[in-house]
Design brief:
Layout: E1 7-15, E2 22-26, E3 30-34, E4 41-42, H1 47-50, H2 55-58, H3 62-65, E5 72-78, E6 81-86, E7 92-94, E8 97-99, E9 101-104, E10 112-116, E11 120-128, H4 129-134
Parallel strand pairs: 3-4
Antiparallel strand pairs: 1-2, 1-11, 3-5, 5-6, 6-9, 7-8, 7-10, 10-11
Length: 146
């Protein structure tokens, strides 16, 4: 995939409150994962959470609070190059390994699994812009991310 193809990063929830949700991050955009309502992928705004009748009680549980307000920053620096930065006190995991900051350059060849908090897991992959245009939801950039 090349820049001419309009590559986007796809961040897809595999499990946890954000399981089934997806954001697409264009080149030059930043996505924040966290529990803040301002995060691009927010556990507080998760469809699965809001569907629960006890959602107000869940947001005070230890498992829910393992996701920081601003837990992880994902930057799509240039086509196929993604930087992931842990902003939390509970850690961010990439393919099961604890990271502080990691640069991915092999997303054209493989997917990666990102772990956030006790239960949130995401698949990171690339897609062409044509595929992204057909799918709902663009990444919500966090104005305070840079």
């Amino acid at each position: 995939m090349s820049e001419g193809n309009g590559v986007v990063l796809v961040v897809r929830g595999l499990r946890g409150f954000l399981g089934g949700e997806e954001q697409r991050v264009k080149v030059g955009e930043t996505l924040i994962l966290g529990r803040s309502r301002r995060a691009g992928l927010s556990t507080r705004r998760a469809k699965k959470l809001k569907a629960r009748p006890d959602w107000e009680m869940v947001i005070g549980t230890a498992a829910f609070l393992t996701v920081s307000r601003r837990h992880t920053r994902i930057e799509h620096v240039r086509p196929g190059v993604v930087e992931i930065t842990d902003l939390s006190s509970n850690g961010t995991y990439l393919d099961g390994k604890l990271i502080a900051r990691e640069t991915l350059t092999d997303l054209a060849e493989r997917t990666h699994v990102l772990g956030v908090g006790a239960q949130e897991r995401f698949e990171l992959s690339l897609a062409r812009a044509e595929e992204a245009a057909a799918a709902p939801g663009e990444a919500a950039a966090d104005p305070g991310a840079n």
